[in-house]
Write a structure and sequence with these properties.
It contains twelve helices and twelve strands.
Length: 332
């Protein structure tokens, strides 16, 4: 017997796999999504075609919303673009020469060995500023100086310490390498190819756009971004990334905060019954899932004012994806 809606939602909230996955349909996914109070919008595309997209609450699918830390994956894309243009020599290049006086003289000597790759992989070794330490950091007078002035927790490349400070350092270094603002880079190298545009977002006290948070995309633009990555880096013939860059981003480097999931270059990586799932996520439950093997792209937006913890809303979204959406796209 098929479970009732109440039973199914309880299972989703608990992060449990749904029974009879062979009978799951995409209609089931939208029916369940409507009942998840924190979820705003669900968009599912197979083979580049949107099968359905519904905004149950909040803005419509064409209205940009704050995608929170999905911004870190956008920043990763800009890193690949800088590398392709020769603005940075390699991912192994230290970022210190691009930041100069932003680094305190008394900073740990290891600070000057931190590379672009260390920042992307969250392996800088710097004190992390995220979650309950984020607010204090962004209320300071000089975010980059503070990040470098805080004690080093580990040697670079040894430990994953998730931090928006890593992303902000990266964003400022990319802007300085290109001689343009992060807003201009985002519009030229992501916005224009995806037929969307970014408006200004949070800046630090020195006027630098915040790297890794608060960028805005509509669910439709999120879909185009995910599709570009699914198909090798282009949307309608316009490139945002190279196949080589995508492969590097999707190469596992460390474990993530979700048990069994791993982390690449600002992408989360998950394997479900042998199927590789690549996803990006932002605070509150802003998600883009990309599954090339299933020709699948799924975008979700949620209430960005509420958390999506590993044992809460995020677990529910992962259950919706793995227990309903992915089985519904199984080849027949």
């Amino acid at each position: 017997m098929r479970p009732t809606r109440r039973t199914t939602l309880a299972m989703l909230a608990a992060g449990l796999a749904l029974p009879n996955p062979a009978r799951a349909s995409l209609d089931d996914a939208f029916t369940l999504a409507r009942e998840i109070e924190q979820l705003h919008c669900l968009l599912i595309a197979v083979d580049g075609r949107i099968t359905d997209a519904r905004a149950f609450r909040g803005p419509d699918i064409d209205t940009p919303v704050n995608v929170k830390s999905v911004s870190k994956t956008l920043l990763s894309t800009l890193t690949g673009a800088a590398l392709a243009r020769g603005e940075i020599p390699s991912l192994d290049t230290p970022v210190a020469p691009y930041l100069k006086r932003m680094i305190p003289r008394r900073a740990d000597r290891r600070v000057r060995t931190i590379t672009f790759e260390h920042l992307l992989a969250m392996q800088s070794g710097l004190t992390p500023f995220a979650g309950n330490t984020y607010g204090g950091w962004v209320s300071g007078k000089h975010w980059i100086f503070q990040a470098f002035d805080a004690p080093m927790i580990a040697d670079p490349e040894t430990t994953r310490l998730y931090s928006t400070a890593n992303s902000h350092i990266l964003g400022v270094a990319l802007a300085r390498a290109a001689g343009k603002s992060l807003l201009d880079l985002a519009n030229e190298r992501i916005g224009a190819p995806l037929d969307t545009s970014f408006t200004g977002w949070t800046r630090d006290p020195q006027g630098n756009y915040l790297g890794g948070n608060d960028m805005r995309l509509s669910p439709m633009a999120m879909f185009r971004f995910g599709e570009a990555y699914r198909t090798g880096g282009t949307w309608n013939g316009q490139p945002i990334a190279t196949p080589d860059w995508i492969a590097r981003c999707w190469e596992p480097r460390t474990m993530s905060d979700v048990p069994g999931h791993r982390y690449g270059l600002s992408w989360f990586l998950w394997e479900i019954d042998g199927i590789r799932v690549n996803y990006t996520r932002g605070y509150g439950g802003q998600m883009i899932y990309v599954v090339p093997e299933r020709r699948l792209t799924v975008c979700i937006t949620s209430n960005a004012a509420r958390p999506a913890t590993v044992t809460g809303h995020l677990k529910t979204l992962h259950a919706l994806f793995s227990g309903v959406i992915l089985p519904a796209t199984r080849p027949t």
